[in-house]
Design a protein that fits this description.
Blueprint (H helix, E strand, L loop, with lengths): L17 H28 L7 H6 L8 E2 L2 E2 L3 H14 L1 H21 L2 H12 L5 E4 L9 H4 L3 E5 L2 E12 L6 E8 L5 E7 L5 E5 L11 E12 L10 H36 L1 E2 L2 E2 L4 H29 L5 H25 L12 H12 L4 H13 L7
Parallel strand pairs: 3-6, 4-6
Antiparallel strand pairs: 1-2, 4-5, 5-9, 6-7, 8-9, 10-11
Helix pairs in contact: 1-3, 3-4, 3-7, 3-8, 4-5, 4-7, 7-8, 7-9, 7-10, 8-9, 9-10, 9-11
The chain binds flavin-adenine dinucleotide.
Flavin-adenine dinucleotide binds next to strand 3, strand 5, helix 10 and helix 11.
Length: 392
C-alpha cells in the first residue's frame, strides 16, 4: 500500500474546528468532483464556466470572513484555506472568486456606506451579483498610488469618469466594477460602484494570455460615465483606503500560491509513483526524491507562514508588510515548486491533461498580480529600514 499523497505534511488542518474542517472538505469535494473534470478544457478555450456560479454560491463561502450583510463571519484563516482549496484544483477559479469576494466585496465592506453595504453585499454573498475591481491601467500598474490616469470630476450630485483600465478580472460579465479614479480637483483617489449598464462603460475581453486563461480579464473604457454621488464609495477618501483592501486580499493571494504549489506537488507525486523507467517507479530514484522533498519543504514553509499570517489577520494585527512578505515569499516558492513538478514528469509535464502544466503557467500570474515581487519587496524594505525606495 502506497503512503498517502497530501500536501499538508504537518497536519495543519488539525488546527481547524470540526465545523471548519467540514467546510474545507465540502469545498474540496466540489472542486474535485465539479471543477477538476472541466478545468483544462475551459482554460484551453479561454472561456469561463458560467454554469458553476450557482453551484459555487451554494457553498456559502463568498464574503466568508465578513460580519453581517448575510456573510458567514468565519475567520480569515478559513478564508485563506478556501483560497488554497480552490487554487489547489484551479487557480483561475480561485482568482475569479478572489476578485469577486475579496477585491470587489472587500472594497464595499471596507469603504462603502451602510446603505451601499446593504444594497450590494447580501446579493454578492449569494453570488446573484458578481463584482470586479478596476485599479490597473494600460500605462499605470505598480505606480497606481500616485499616478492614476482615470479621472473623476464632480458635477452637482453626479461624477464624470474618464479613462482606461487594463487587466480587470471578471469585468466582461460583472454586474458592478469598483473603479478607482483620481479626483481632478483634490487629486485624491476615489472609488466608484460602476454598474455594467452605465452609458460610456465598455469592457473588452483580453485575448492571448498564457496564464489564468479561464479568467476573463478586460480592458475597460470609461467615456464620460456619469455616476451618481450615491454610487461613490463613501469611505474611500485616498489611496490609503484602496491599500487597506489590497492588504486584506494580498493575504488571500499568498494562500492562493500555496494552493497552486500544492496542486502541482500532489499531482507530480502521484505521477512519480505510477510512472516506471528502468523497471522501477521513478519515485524510487534519489534525484526524483530530492525534487519531491524540495517541493514539500517549500510547500510546508509557505503553509505554516500563511497560517500565522491569517492568525495575525484574525487578531487585527496584520500590517501591509506582513501581507507583502507572505505574498513575495509564497509566489517565489510556488514558482520553484511548479517547475520541479513539471520537471519530474518529463515531457508529460507540459501536457495539460497531466494536470501540472496549468499550474506552471498560472504561477506566473500569481507572481505578478496584487503587487509584483519588486513592489512587495519594497514595502517590506521600507518597513524594516525606515527608507522608502519607491520613486515618485
Ligand atoms: P509594471 O508596473 O509596468 O512593472 C513592470 C516591472 O517593473 C515589474 O517587474 C515591476 O516589479 C517593476 N517595477 C515597477 N516599479 C518598480 C520600482 N519602483 N522598483 C523596482 N521595480 C519596479 N489589476 C486590477 O486592477 N484588477 C484586476 O482584477 C487585475 N487582475 C489581474 C490579473 C492578471 C492575470 C494579471 C497579470 C494582472 C492583473 N491586474 C489586475 C494587474 C496587476 O495588478 C498588475 O499587472 C501589477 O500591479 C503590475 O503592474 P504592471 O503589469 O503594469 O507592471
Amino acid at each position: 500500500k502506497l503512503p498517502p499523497i497530501d500536501g499538508d505534511f504537518y497536519d495543519l488542518a488539525l488546527q481547524l474546528t470540526p465545523e471548519q474542517r467540514k467546510i474545507q472538505i465540502k469545498v474540496r469535494n466540489f472542486m474535485e468532483d465539479e471543477i477538476q473534470p472541466i478545468a483544462n478544457d475551459f482554460w484551453n478555450r479561454a472561456e469561463f464556466p458560467h454554469h458553476i456560479i450557482p453551484k459555487m454560491a451554494k457553498l456559502n463561502i463568498a464574503g466568508l470572513a465578513y460580519k453581517g450583510y448575510g456573510c458567514p463571519g468565519e475567520t480569515f484563516l478559513m478564508e485563506g484555506i478556501m483560497a488554497m482549496e480552490l487554487a489547489r484544483v484551479d487557480v483561475s477559479l480561485s482568482t475569479f472568486f478572489g476578485v469577486h469576494s475579496g477585491l470587489a466585496m472587500g472594497s464595499i465592506y471596507l469603504c462603502g456606506s451602510e446603505e451601499q453595504k446593504q444594497e450590494w453585499l447580501p446579493k454578492m454573498q449569494r453570488m446573484e451579483r458578481i463584482g470586479a475591481f478596476g485599479l490597473t491601467e494600460p500605462e499605470v500598474g505598480s505606480g497606481a498610488a500616485g499616478g492614476l490616469g482615470t479621472t473623476c470630476k464632480q458635477d452637482g450630485d453626479t461624477w464624470i469618469l474618464n479613462g482606461n483600465k487594463k487587466w480587470i478580472g471578471n469585468a466582461t460579465f460583472a454586474d458592478v466594477v469598483i473603479i478607482w479614479a483620481r479626483d481632478e480637483d483634490s487629486n485624491q483617489v476615489k472609488g466608484f460602484l460602476v454598474r455594467k449598464e452605465t452609458e460610456g462603460f465598455t469592457a473588452t475581453k483580453m485575448e492571448n494570455k498564457m496564464a489564468l486563461r479561464t479568467v476573463q480579464n478586460a480592458e475597460i473604457t470609461l467615456d464620460n460615465c456619469r455616476i451618481p454621488e450615491s454610487d461613490r464609495l463613501q469611505n474611500a477618501n485616498s489611496f490609503k483606503d484602496t491599500a487597506a483592501v489590497l492588504k486584506m486580499t494580498r493575504a488571500a493571494v499568498a494562500w492562493q500560491a500555496v494552493g497552486c504549489a500544492r496542486g502541482a506537488y500532489e499531482n507530480a507525486l502521484k505521477y512519480t509513483k505510477k510512472r516506471e523507467q528502468f523497471g522501477r517507479p521513478i519515485a524510487s530514484f534519489q534525484l526524483i526524491q530530492n525534487h519531491l522533498v524540495e517541493m514539500l519543504s517549500n510547500l510546508t514553509a509557505m503553509q505554516t507562514l500563511c497560517f500565522r499570517l491569517s492568525e495575525l489577520q484574525d487578531q487585527e494585527l496584520l500590517t501591509d508588510e506582513h501581507a507583502s512578505l507572505a505574498k513575495v515569499f509564497c509566489s517565489m516558492r510556488t514558482r520553484d515548486v511548479v517547475s520541479r513538478a513539471r520537471e519530474v514528469m518529463g515531457g508529460n509535464g507540459i501536457l495539460l491533461e497531466y494536470n501540472v502544466a496549468r499550474f506552471v503557467a498560472d504561477a506566473e500570474a500569481i507572481y505578478s498580480y496584487e503587487g509584483t515581487k519588486e513592489i512587495n519587496t519594497l514595502i517590506v524594505g521600507r518597513a524594516i529600514t525606515g527608507y522608502s525606495a519607491f520613486v515618485s
